[in-house]
Amino acid sequence: MADTSGLDEPIIIKKYANRRLYDTSSSSYVTLEHLSELVRSGKDFVVLDAKSGEDLTRSVLTQIIFEQENKGGNALPLNFLRQVIRFYGDSVSQALPPYLDMAMNNFTKNQERWRGMMSGGMPANPMAMFEDQARRNFEMFERSMSMFTAGAPSKGRPDTEVEDEEPKPSQTASKRQADKEDESETLEALQQQMAAMQAQLAKLSTPKKKS
User: Fold this and answer.
1) What angle do CA 67, 116, 141 make, to 5 degrees?
2) What does the H/E/C string look like for the chain?
3) pLDDT at position 114, please?
4) Domain final position from 70, 88, 121
5) Number of domains forming the structure of the chain
6) Domain that residue 86 falls in
7) pLDDT for 210
8) Does the pTM exceed 0.85?
C-alpha cells in the first residue's frame, strides 16, 4: 500500500549543476513544462540546489514565467513589467509584494466570474468593472497596511516630546494633498494595467470565424 503520510508536503525538486531538474517524488528527471503543469494542478513544490541546498524556487518560477511569455502567453503587460522594474531599489518596493499577492488572490477568487464574462461576451462597460476591482484591491491593501502599522512604535523622539509637537495647518494640508496625488497616481497605474488586461480579455473572448 502506498505511503500517504506526506501528501501535504511540497514536492522536492533538486536542481543540478547541469541545470537538470530531478523530482524526488517520482524519482525522475523533469522539465520546466512539467513544473508548470504542477503549478496549474495546484501541487506545491520547492526547488533546492542539489549540492548546497539553497532554495531556488523563486528563480525557477520566474524562469517558467519567462518561458511562457516567450511562447506568446502575454499575461504580463509591458507597462506592468516596466513599473515592477522601477520599484526595485525603491523603499516602496517592500509594500509591492503583499499588494500584488492580495490582488492576485482576489482575482483568483473571482476567476469563475471572469470566465463567465468571457464566455458570455464582454459587458457593455468592462472598464468600470476593472476599475472597481482595482479600487477594491487598493482599499483592501490600505486597510491591511493600516492594521499592520497601527501598533508600530514611532521612530525619533520620545512620546512625551512628540505630543508637544502639533502639525501646522499648512503642513497638514500639504500632506493631505500629497496623499491625494499618490493615490491618484496609484489608481492611474492600476487603470493602465486593467486596460491592458481588458484588451487581452477582449482578444480571447472574440469568437473565431468558422471556415
Assistant:
1) 70
2) CCCCCCCCCCEEEEECCCCCEEECCCCEEECHHHHHHHHHCCCCEEEEECCCCCECHHHHHHHHHHHHHHCCCCCCCHHHHHHHHHHCCCHHHHCHHHHHHHHHHHHHHCHHHHHHHHHCCCCCCHHHHHHHHHHHHHHHHHHHHHHHHHCCCCCCCCHHHHHHCCCCHHHHHHHHHHHHHHHHHHHHHHHHHHHHHHHHHHHHHCCCCCC
3) 67
4) 70
5) 2
6) 78-149+169-202
7) 52
8) no
